[in-house]
Amino acid sequence: PLDLPGWQALRERLHDQGLEIVTVALDVEADAARPFIDQAQPTHPSLIDSAHVTGELFGFVNVPNAVWIDESGTIVRPAEAAMPGTTPSGSRPWAT
How many CB atoms lie within 10 A of CB 93? Predict the structure, then answer.
């Protein structure tokens, strides 16, 4: 939840080019994540998955993780560690 502003900034920068961001909190207690979402006020879909269904579907084993899904709904890049503004190598290609 603390990285919601970073994901929001990335969405604002690239949404016109077709990127959509969906953030998913994996808190067992929805009330634990809700204040962070409310504070960030994201304009992208921000969900709470207390049953960890997304982890089972996409292979998330830790957070933050990301999965890339193309326009047809096909997973084109499997779950990997992800932080807004960085790549797995630690570089920051999206930073302004």
Answer: 8
Asked if 6 contacts 90 with a C-beta cutoff of 8 angstroms, the reply is no
Beta strands in 1-96 (DSSP E): 23-25, 46-48, 65-69, 75-81
Q: What's residue 13's pLDDT?
A: 92
Strand partners, 65: 81
Residues 14-56: pLDDT tens digits?
999 988 988 888 888 989 999 989 998 999 999 999 998 988 8
21 neighbors 9 (Cβ within 8 angstroms): no
Could you tell me if 52 and 26 are in contact, meaning their C-beta atoms sit under 8 angstroms apart?
yes
Single pTM value for the model? 0.75
C-alpha 74/C-alpha 76 separation (Å) is 6
